[in-house]
Amino acid sequence: MNVSRFIRVLTQINNNEVILSRKRNLFKINRRWIGIQAKVSDDNECLEVKYQKRTDKFPLIWLRDNCTCENCFHKSSQSRIINWKDFDINIKVNSVEAKDESNIEINWNDNHKSVYSWDWLEKRSFSEAAQVKYLNDLYIPTKKLWSKNEFFDVLKSYEHKDIVNEDEALYNWLKDLAIYGVTLIRNAFENEKECQKISERVAFVKKTHYGESFHVVAKEGTNNVAYLSNPLQLHTDLPYYHYQPGVILLHCIVQNKGKGGGNLLTDAFYVAEKLRNENKDAFNVLSSMDVNWLDVGEEDAVPFHKIHREPMIVLDRHGNIRTIRHSIPQRDSYFTVNIEDVKPWYKALKVFVDEIYSNAAHFKTQPGDILAVDNTRLVHGRLGYQDTKDVKRFLVGNYLDWDEIHSKLRVLRKRFAKSSP
Questions:
Q1: Which of 112, 196, 282, 355 matches a 20 to 30 Å C-alpha distance to 390?
Q2: CATH number of the domain at 138-416, out of 1.10.287.3510, 3.60.130.10, 3.90.550.10, 3.30.300.30?
Q3: What are the residues facing 361 on neighbouring strands?
Q4: Where is 118: in which H helix or E strand?
């Protein structure tokens, strides 16, 4: 068979059914695949698939690597089992044939046959539009950055009973948390297990050297400044962890009734992008110079000494902001950089700090509120307060990892998203 010749997927429409004719056989296929053609490219490197308005190319080596027959793919574990020790990276095609049920069959020169559906191929298109859709929808939802003036527009509220009992509410809550970096759950029971209950609806609590949960309450002799009634500077939690906790859940059980104790929140991604556009020098310094993050102490009679080195603004290899690490108390006095870079870094830090405070939203959680905050993106803080003789401000919190949140989102997306790649 001449593999450079197009195979045609449509020959006639009969009684509202699309019919595929190949040789003397007839196969029903999905109407949406009308007019598709496919052939091997002239350089014998790709399968070219022509739709009505575009052409996609699929490298042959990728197609052979992703064969889903039982000899190459373990269906229940969704895992590739093809033997790559014997894999031919110069694989060629003997023939391309249209099959029933909207499939195409490739016969390889190693005497293997692979079948692919048009739908499977379309979702895995190498086109920019298809890849952007996959990255922004299924991989990680696109973040929407916000200024302090937009905070109350983006702060979505959910009922505790809905999150606990309804999967669709859980999906929408997690999606909003991924997009905006902050959400509020209302009317939680005022006990110490509600954050854990929410976390276990997603996956499990991320344990740290402070335990599975932590209590935010003013106490003497603390080894953490969060447990003071003084103002708490804007920061991210635990920057000294290589795997920094992804999300903080903070359940307000008792709130200070005076003017103090209010929350501060800033979208630090918004601030960082603002610096990138308005003060590129400060942005470059903060995104390139490692900071030594430190926590030393003892919790429940167990000593710890954590150190991690990474910039305040962490970029991925595409230049996109991946995480923010910022905590004035948790910066080590060891600063392992060139001495001439020290003053420029402090100048950039000052610019960043001024910006996060000028862009901080102010509000105050009330008993029964669970505040969820993206700890890799937002910085949070608290106004100072004074406990009364009879009322002591008390919050309970724990952490979730983004790996588990994104996993749960993808599972729920199959049921509740309007469209899924």
A1: 196
A2: 3.60.130.10
A3: 265
A4: helix 118-123
Q: By the 8 A CB rule, do 172 and 158 touch?
A: yes
Q: Report the C-alpha gap between 326 and 355 in whole angstroms.
A: 13
Nearest to 35 by CA among 60, 58, 10: 10
Q: Where are the beta strands (DSSP E) in 247-301?
A: 247-254, 263-267, 291-299
Angle, helices 342-358/268-278, rounded to nearest 10 degrees? 120
User: Domain residues of the chain, as ranges?
Assistant: 7-126, 138-416
- Report the first-to-last Cα separation within the chain, whole angstroms: 34
| CA–CA dist 193, 331 (Å, integer) | 32
CB 122 within 8 A of CB 103: no
Largest CA distance in the chain: 90
**C-alpha to C-alpha distance for 409 and 173, rounded to whole angstroms:** 10
| CA neighbor of 241 nearest in space, from 307, 340, 167 | 307
C-alpha to C-alpha distance for 268 and 148, rounded to whole angstroms: 11
Tell me the CA distances in angstroms from 284 to 280, 306, 356, 359, one per residue in order: 6, 26, 17, 20
CB contact set of 1 (below 8 Å; sequence gap of 6+): 94, 95, 96, 97
Rounded Cα distance, 254 and 399, in Å: 20
CATH number belonging to the domain at 7-126, selected among 3.30.2020.30, 3.40.50.1820, 3.30.70.580, 3.30.450.20: 3.30.2020.30
Mean local confidence (pLDDT), 82-108:
89
Which pLDDT value is given to residue 10? Answer: 40
408: nearest Cα among 70, 174, 150: 174
pLDDT(158) > 50: yes
Instruction: Give tens-digit pLDDT for 206-239.
Output: 999 999 999 988 655 445 555 556 788 999 999 9
Tell which residue, 403, 394, 399, has the closest CA to residue 373.
399
